[in-house]
Design goal:
The protein has 461 residues and is mainly β. It has four helices and 26 strands.
Length: 461
């Protein structure tokens, strides 16, 4: 349960958030979409949100997406090497960030196998991003499980500027060489945009952690009429990441792709219907030799084992949402989603074939303008999956404007973190051979059945 009390100042009428600005920080009040899935001024959101717009992105000079989150209060950004980046909130930071949801144009980038986001392998460059909204706190009522500590909403640039044409080359020390190019145009109701990207560097000095990433993505929009629009998106990336540990130096090959379609019909400012579907997939492959020295009856023993790991994941989703306004002072949104996550990995599950997790969810949100200076907000998400019993995540908020330009927000919410497939089905093992051969054979099995001979069990927190 979280209890938030926030204050803020901004110039301008809250009913006209695009008024004149005195400065960058005392300027127009941004309109956000991520708090409740409804467009609203930042001062009327029931959750705390930080907005990173295109101007801030360009001024930051960041060439990696995680570095942008250093602009968000309370967020931590860490690096285990030149391509493994971790993003966390309120001091909670680990390799898989299983408590934070990340959405890119409405599709979740959260990894179904291990959790977290592989930021280096995304088919997305900093130059592709129009704006980022970061919800600081639980928001499962709008985006479901794993929107536990925070939610990152990334919106790409095509829908704001379909005719944008550009080319950028960046080079520097430590092997930095980035190329990004885009070409777009519009013809009557049609508009399209293609983007190509290449990123490479040598990582940190004296560490074997360089990376090479190629990506391509495209957008195609068609306006059936003034109120109806169809949007198609696709993207693909191919990354080679180099790593060095007890298994030696080796490359990691990571591939990621997605297809997304969306149909939207806007009846008016507070009414509309949208249907979206997407499918995305990843592939991960690495190979190395684990070598260690152990004591065997007073004799030194060199233990070696091949470490070969390949993993594939997939996610398919179908979602519907409807905006409505039953009265002048009321407005709301409801919707639902059916989703299937899947993963296969002989190394992680000790079996072939796919392991799937089917998920269903329903959500709703309602706002009531009690007075010009007082607003009540309430919503909830119901969801159930193969890995989690039915859960309801409610939220209620009261937003008060005691005087123009000042906001007091009081909200309470509840969120749940769902386990990933690895936590539910992990059975990770690697047979070890001895060199020189000495009986008995040595074996090690992680996360497996503790009754298995030579097994060592480790629990994932």
């Amino acid at each position: 349960m979280g209890l938030l009390l926030a204050t803020g100042t901004a110039h301008g009428d809250r009913h006209n958030p695009f008024g004149s600005a005195e400065s960058l920080y005392l300027g127009e009040i941004p309109v956000v979409l991520s708090g409740t899935r409804l467009a609203q001024p930042l001062t009327e959101s029931p959750v705390a949100i930080t907005v990173i717009d295109r101007e801030q992105i360009e001024a930051s000079g960041a060439r990696e997406i995680p570095d942008l989150f250093r602009l968000v209060p309370g967020m931590l950004v860490g690096s285990r090497n030149g391509h493994d980046r971790d993003v966390g909130y309120l001091g909670i930071l680990d390799a898989f960030s299983r408590r934070m949801q990340v959405l890119i144009d409405g599709r979740t980038a959260y990894d179904p196998l291990l959790g977290g986001v592989n930021w280096s392998a995304l088919p997305l460059d900093v130059e592709d991003i129009e704006r980022i909204e970061v919800i600081r706190g639980p928001n499962a009522a709008s985006f479901g499980t794993n929107a536990f500590l925070g939610t990152i909403i990334i919106t790409t640039r095509h829908q704001f500027d379909p005719q944008r044409r550009h080319a950028t080359v960046r080079t520097g020390s430590e092997g930095v060489f980035d190329v990004h190019a885009g070409l777009g145009n519009s013809h009557g109701p049609w508009s399209w945009h293609l983007k190509f990207g290449h990123r490479e560097d040598d990582g940190f000095a004296e560490i074997y952690d360089s990376k090479r990433v190629h990506s391509v993505s495209g957008d195609l929009d068609y306006e059936l009429d003034l109120r109806t629009r169809v949007e198609l998106k696709a993207g693909y990336s191919d990354a080679t990441l180099f790593i060095e540990d007890t298994a030696g130096r080796r490359p990691i090959e990571a591939i990621e792709g997605f297809l997304l379609g969306r149909w939207a019909h806007d009846v008016g400012k507070e009414r509309g219907l949208a249907l979206s579907a997407y499918h995305q997939w990843t592939s991960w492959e690495e190979f190395g030799i684990f070598t260690d020295t152990a004591d065997f009856g007073g004799l030194p023993l060199v233990v070696t084992a091949p470490v070969a790991r390949d993993a594939d994941t997939r996610r398919s989703s179908l979602a519907l949402e409807k905006r409505f306004s039953p009265a002048v002072d009321w407005r709301g949104i409801w919707g639902g989603e059916l989703r299937r996550d899947g993963a296969r990995s002989l190394f992680d599950f000790n079996r072939g074939g796919w392991l799937d997790n089917d998920l269903a969810r329903l959500f709703g949100h309602l706002e009531w303008q009690l007075r010009d200076d007082l607003q009540l907000s309430a919503g909830a998400m119901w969801e159930e999956s193969d890995l989690m019993d039915a859960e309801v995540s409610p939220r209620a908020g009261l937003i008060w404007h005691p005087r123009p330009g000042h906001t007091l927000r009081l909200s309470a919410s509840r969120a749940t973190r769902s386990p990933v497939l690895f936590e539910a089905y992990a059975d990770q093992g690697a047979p070890l051979s001895t060199e020189p051969p000495l009986p008995p054979p040595v074996c090690q099995l992680l996360y497996g059945d503790p009754t298995t001979p030579c097994a060592v069990k480790s629990l994932l927190n």
